[in-house]
Design goal:
Blueprint lengths: L2 H10 L24 H23 L9 H4 E4 L2 E4 L8 H32 L20 H5 L3 H5 L15 H6 L8 H40 L6 E5 L8 E4 L6
Antiparallel strand pairs: 1-2, 3-4
Length: about 250
């Protein structure tokens, strides 16, 4: 057989291709076929090396060695489980700690409430610029009176003092004596800014006092849950209120 004939016969032969493994069966491992023998051999030797390393580590281990994980771990149903340490605090101790927490938060809340009352007394009848428009309603009988209504005339003051919501003297008072207090625009602007800062501080303290009140309620709720009385949650806990539970009624002797 000539070389040309063998070459032509080889060209007519179809290449042999092995069937690919279905994707659904890849989890079952490598197929017993020719092209996978290297992968299977590599996996086998890798596992054998790991076993030899573990055997060597076990032989080199000191039998007198001790560490706390030995008594904190165990094997259950073939699974290595680490034991969780038991809570060494009794329910009575937890209740006492909750009570101390409530007392501390309540003390801070009462201190904040006193500061709020003090600020309110200092800012009584004062209105900060930008703190929200106030409304003063005037009632008339007819539409003509509403069209001809003059605020300065109704309040018996000059038009320049209409916008003032405090210390607004009448015309008779102005005739008897001059306006008391600062009249310089720059000074008035400075006082208005100071007043606005005080109102901002008052608003922050009010929000802080409300937050402490919510914290007190949540701590009290957690303290009540320590009782073994049957309870059912009615509403979930939110940022502005604690969770609401319905406790089973028990008659006390």
């Amino acid at each position: 057989m000539s070389a040309a004939f063998r070459k032509a016969a080889k060209a007519r032969q179809r290449p042999h291709r092995e069937r690919a493994q279905p994707a659904a069966r890849t989890k079952l491992g490598l197929l017993e076929k020719k092209k996978d023998y290297r992968l299977r051999a590599h996996d086998y030797h890798k596992k054998q090396n790991a076993l030899r390393a573990l055997q060597k580590k076990a032989l080199d281990k000191n039998p007198d060695e001790f560490y706390f994980k030995m008594i904190r771990a165990e094997v259950k149903d073939g699974v290595h489980v680490i034991k969780q340490p038991k809570d060494e605090v009794t329910p009575e101790q937890v209740k006492l700690m909750r009570t101390q927490d409530i007392k501390y938060v309540e003390m801070k809340r009462l201190a904040e409430a006193k500061k709020i009352e003090r600020l309110k007394a200092e800012l009584h009848l004062l209105d900060a610029a930008g703190s929200g428009p106030g409304r003063h309603l005037f009632f008339v009988d007819t539409e003509r009176e509403a069209q001809e209504f003059d605020i300065a005339t109704h309040l018996d003051t000059v038009p320049e003092l209409v916008d003032r919501v405090y210390n607004r003297p009448t015309i008779a008072m102005l005739q008897r004596e001059t306006v008391k207090g600062p009249t310089d625009p720059a000074h008035l602007k400075k006082l208005a800014q100071q007043r606005k800062n005080q109102y901002d501080l008052l608003r922050q303290r009010i929000e802080r006092e409300k937050a402490m009140f919510v914290i007190t309620q949540k701590i009290q709720t957690r303290k009540d849950l320590l009782d073994k009385t049957h309870k059912v949650k009615v509403k979930k806990e939110t940022a502005t209120r604690p969770a609401i539970y319905k406790f089973k009624f028990q008659r006390k002797r």
